[in-house]
Design brief:
Nucleotidyltransferase, domain 5, eight-stranded mixed beta sheet, seven-stranded mixed beta sheet, 5 domains, alpha+beta, about 45% helix, 22 strands, single chain, GIY-YIG endonuclease
């Protein structure tokens, strides 16, 4: 049970609100003057914890000294326990990604092998996430390539289907696929294997996935020897290759620990604002893989705080919890994290720092790996920051504005006014945010009028932004137009009509179509062509152009297909798909007589005559351009 206390920033009296804080566990959120969440934390007692931020204590960390003056308001959520507060804290950090929380930079997920045991004829599939869908899951695995190899091997060994046909409902509807002909499937789609036989093969596959390959190697070895004795050397070679594949898949288990338990070995390397956590994955006593994660450290955070932030964020997102977590550094909330993970796993989880023996050496090994990675990647990270954040700062300095966190760029594409389209690309912190890209099909403009088309695009985008429609609710800090004075003035006019104040600049190109400067506030500003800011502007301009061109090509392609088939009377989408599936190309459709056309399941006599008449009328006999486009 949770209770949430919210306040409006405009009427928030921090001193008064501090007096109202309850002495209960919960989560608190710190907001700045723009009502953006700066920090999320949890507390055993909200009253004691939140008051500490605004006290005169000299023991505050540097992060708190820099954050507290920016706090315009706070809100809190009361929970029933500290464990519940920890879970809620993890969820809110993931949702808001606050500036002053130590943030896990990698949003990785590990694949699973999914067996659809709930089906009559189950399949073995690659899955990105574990879902509550009655299927059986194996994993997660740290190596996606190994998962795909294993799935491919299981299908070959046990002849399990890979198609998505609805069986047994669709048995016999279509002919068997290629996998039947190459002896990798026994065609349950034709009813050529009973459900009982198929299930027997599936159980063998599940035993294999459970980590018992020895029986399979022995079985394949016997089959290989028998084939060799029968002088069937081609089949013997196939079995030999399968044995090699089984051994290769099992080689992913690189190192053995005699404990036979599931463990994660977690070690931290930290330097300045950068940190790397190395994780070794030990499953059933075998080191099956490793991975590393980048964290952005806020000022003043110590090693324990950083490692604790990683544990919360990482295990909030992974579905598999091992029995034991071995850490390189102590964490303040170790006991609470133990309780949380135990509840999540359903069995006891141990979180501790090994002090001697093999476990300590394994943690030391993970720590050395983390330090090596941090040393190797610091220069790469610096280059990446210069290419993104540094480039944004350069652009802000060039235009004499605050570094724009969110940049939107627009472009128009058409050919002589045909199918005009607009594109909107978004860059946040110097990186493309493709989930926010948007395409616009021009509706109100006829002919090649880029200014009018751009006006329509911008009006539609920002009217939706004002209405806070999903996908348009966040406004940019800077608008970049693909062009000079004319396009910039169009954008400023639209923003003026809507009462918005957003900086707008034009990306001006030279006679060779290369970016030469920015048009901003009625003057062209030259750019250092060797700087990171110039290269980011070029990437943004090219991306806006590419996105518009791709959309325009798609619409042109659809229009060309439409002109050939969609204009035939009596032929709708279903009949059109059937025609294109049955015949190789438009020439074959044109050559077909009425009887052939009528033999298609969805074709009536009237529809067949309509198709025949369409291709044999005088207006269609010379339609070479359209036919070529469809092919």
């Amino acid at each position: 049970m949770t209770e949430r206390k919210e306040q409006n920033t405009a009427h928030f009296d921090i001193a008064e609100e501090l007096k109202k804080l309850p002495a209960k566990p919960g989560v608190y959120l710190m907001y700045d003057a723009k009502d953006v969440v700066m920090y999320v934390g949890k507390a055993v007692s909200l009253r004691n914890r939140v008051r500490q931020y605004f006290s005169n204590s000299r023991n505050k960390r540097l992060k708190i000294y820099s954050m507290v003056p920016q706090v315009a308001r706070f809100e809190y959520i009361v929970t029933d326990s500290e464990v519940e507060a920890l879970v809620l804290e993890c969820n809110l950090i993931k949702e808001y990604r606050p500036k002053y929380n130590t943030m896990l930079m990698d949003d990785k997920s590990y694949p699973f092998i999914k067996v659809t045991v709930q089906d009559a004829y189950p399949r073995v599939l690659y899955a990105h996430h574990m879902r509550k869908d009655k299927a059986r899951y194996f994993g997660p695995y740290p190596n996606a390539g190994a998962v795909k190899e294993t799935i491919d091997l299981v299908r070959k060994l046990y002849h399990l289907r890979s198609c998505n046909r609805n069986l047994p409902k669709e048995i016999g509807r279509e002919r068997p696929c290629l996998y039947y002909h190459i002896h990798q499937c026994k065609a349950p789609c034709q009813g050529w294997i009973s459900e009982e036989e198929y299930q027997a093969s599936l159980q063998q596959a599940i035993a294999f996935l459970n980590g018992n390959p020895g029986d399979e190697i022995r079985r394949l070895t016997e089959l290989m020897q028998q084939a060799s004795e029968d002088l069937n050397f081609e089949k013997a070679a196939a079995y030999r290759d399968l044995i090699a594949s089984v051994r290769k898949v099992m080689e992913h288990q690189k190192m053995t620990n005699s404990s036979g338990e599931d463990q994660d070995v977690i070690a931290l390397a930290m330097e300045g604002e950068d940190a790397i956590v190395q994780v070794f994955f030990v499953r059933d006593g075998k080191l099956i893989g490793r991975d590393h994660f980048y964290l952005k450290v806020t000022e003043g955070d110590d090693r324990g705080t950083v490692l604790q932030s990683f544990l919360k964020q990482y295990y909030a997102g992974t579905p598999f919890i091992p029995k034991e977590l071995m850490l390189s550094d102590p964490v303040e909330d170790g006991q609470i994290i133990e309780e949380w993970l135990t509840a999540k796993r359903g069995k006891r989880v141990y979180v501790h720092i090994p002090l001697k023996g093999k476990k300590e050496k394994l943690v030391e090994l993970a720590g050395r790996n983390a330090q090596i990675l941090l040393s190797q990647d610091r220069e790469r990270l610096k280059r990446e920051i210069g290419r993104t954040i540094g480039a944004v700062k350069e652009i802000g300095s060039l235009l004499e504005i605050e570094p724009p966190e969110r940049i939107e760029a627009y472009d128009i594409s058409n050919i002589s006014g045909f199918q005009s389209v607009g594109s909107m690309v978004v860059y946040e912190k110097g990186r493309p945010k493709k989930a926010d890209y948007r395409k616009f099909r021009i509706k109100s403009v006829e002919g090649p009028n880029d200014y009018a088309s751009m006006e329509e695009v911008l009006m539609r985008r920002f009217e939706r932004g004002i209405r806070e429609e999903s996908g348009f609710d966040r406004l940019p800090d800077l608008i970049m137009m693909d062009g000079g004075k004319g396009q910039v003035n169009i954008a400023l006019e639209v923003l003026g009509k809507l009462g918005l104040d957003i900086p707008v600049c034009g990306m001006v190109k030279d006679d060779r179509h290369r970016t030469r400067g920015l048009y901003f506030e009625n003057e062209e500003i030259p750019i250092d062509t060797s700087g990171a800011g110039f290269h980011l502007i070029t990437r943004i301009q090219d991306e806006a152009h590419r996105f518009a061109i791709e959309y325009h090509r798609l619409l042109r392609s659809k229009e060309q297909v439409h002109s050939v088939l969609d204009d035939i009377p009596q032929v709708g989408p279903a009949r059109r798909r059937e025609l294109m599936k049955h015949f190789q190309n438009i020439d074959e459709i044109r050559a077909a007589d009425v009887e052939t056309l009528k033999s298609l399941p969805s074709m009536t006599e009237k529809a067949a005559e309509s198709v025949y008449a369409f291709f044999h009328s005088s207006t269609q006999d010379s339609g070479e351009t359209e036919d070529t486009a469809v092919r």
